[in-house]
Amino acid sequence: MMNTYPSDRPHDHPAVLRPTRRVTERVPSRFAVMYSGMQAGRMVMGDGLTANLSDGGVGICGDQGVTSGMELALFITVPGTDDPICLPQCRVSWVSGLRFGVELLSLSPEISNQLRFHTWNSSSRPSIGG
Q1: DSSP states of 75-105 as a string?
Q2: What is the percent of the chain with per-residue pLDDT over 70, rounded to a whole number?
Q3: Which residues neighbour 46 within 8 Å (Cβ) at sequence distance 6 or greater?
Q4: What sequence ranges are listed for the domain PilZ (predicted)?
């Protein structure tokens, strides 16, 4: 039997060779999120956790399926705040099962500053045990 190595298969090129569309750095985060939107004439409402945050988008692990291109409203609950951060205009940019990414379409300066603060704050927390 002939051995094949990852470099022998065209779909296994290293990520460094693929063009990236990311404009801003993703910061790992775990915040509760509720999302809602319309899909094929029905309301979709889901709960989940953020996987990462950036100035341009949010990665989410949810409990309800969404489709690429779908518009959503997000409500992100962060520790130490009374009300969730509301992101009323987001578009699903990619989907993989119940994991998906959303692009933030329109943010007020106040909401943008809140996200930056919480993104920075979550990335600067010391890790447990180290």
Answers
A1: EEE-TT-SSPEEEEEEEEEEEETTEEEEEE-
A2: 71
A3: 34, 35, 36, 62, 63, 64, 66
A4: 21-116
